[in-house]
Amino acid sequence: MTQQNKYRYFCDAGHGWLEVPRTEVEASGISVTPYSYYDPQTDMVYLEEDVDLIAFFKASGKTLSDIGQHVFSSKPRQLPSYERSSDNVQDAA
Predict the structure, then answer these.
(1) Is residue 90 part of a domain?
(2) How far is Cα 72 from Cα 12, in angstroms, rounded to an integer?
């Protein structure tokens, strides 16, 4: 995310992804498709635009106005798919 809690939107010629901290993705409770990616070095998830980004916006109350920067880059395609791991989720007990 950039200054003032604005998200970065990455896009290339074929697709787009919203960069979101993993903790926010997990707090939203959404199910994430295999088309979203994860950067373990930055702990950021790149939510694909067709399903995951929309689900995140609906669950979190965020909107397009929360996107602060557009980045033309295929960086997310070079990352592993995001898989919600039980190692990353705190127990509810």
Answers:
(1) no
(2) 6
